[in-house]
Amino acid sequence: xxxxxxxxxxxxxxxxxxxxxxxxxxxxxxxxxxxxxxxxxxxxxxxxxxxxxxxxxxxxxxxxxxxxxxxxxxxxxxxxxxxxxxxxxxxxxxxxxxxxxxxxxxxxxxxxxxxxxxxxxxxxxxxxxxxxxxxxxxxxxxxxxxxxxxxxxxxxxxxxxxxxxxxxxxxxxxxxxxxxxxxxxxxxxxxxxxxxxxxxxxxxxxxxxxxxxxxxxxxxxxxxxxxxxxxxxxxxxxxxxxxx
Length: 244
Ligand code: ZN
Known about the structure:
The protein is an alpha/beta fold. The chain is built from nine helices and nine strands. It has two domains: 1-20 and 68-111 and 161-244, Rossmann fold (3-Layer(aba) Sandwich); 26-66 and 114-155, SIR2/SIRT2 'Small Domain' (2-Layer Sandwich), CATH 3.30.1600.10. The strands form two sheets. A six-stranded parallel sheet has the order 3-2-1-7-8-9, with helices on both faces. A three-stranded antiparallel sheet has the order 5-4-6. Helix 3 packs across helix 6 and helix 7 (164-176) packs parallel to helix 8 (194-201). The longest helix has 16 residues, at 49-64. Zinc ion binds next to loops.
């Protein structure tokens, strides 16, 4: 008997209570402004200075939201602190799981992070805040201070592949866990979404917490439609005493 390995797989819905809009959702930025998709498409970004200028302004706008972890992020970090082995696999780039107290090494960010900037030439990484300070000070498209290359957010853009190491890590925990909780994700973006199926195939208890239906609902042991901010803390509290 021991504590089960719990994987929390989180999507955009996890962070809406933190004030971060779901950019791809029905009211999302990408639908309101069709040209906005270019700002996060690698090819356009690399080719066009104007796209980069607008992209940095968008990053500044998101950073200004100053999003804080919500009750759901805090509940996940608390479960980990209570001694239950927890791994987070997230589609979000906001870093809120770590801000809530999840150790960095236990979080796999499938789509990268908006808290860092990476040089597309020398791959040097630096904090997002430093680059945004340069934008605010009048550099519309700041170049890498190390090599002069084009800088971009540490997020995975359209047209870029996921980091194979991060994906392999996520696959391994999906295969090895006893409980897989998919939170606030429509489970439609591949290959990330198929992790739920992999977990279920390998015998994990699959729990889905999402307002809308997902393609994996029929596979799930439990589907919860309640708002994430109340549902997840309750669910994780219940898991604290589970032994396998
Ligand atoms: Zn560089």
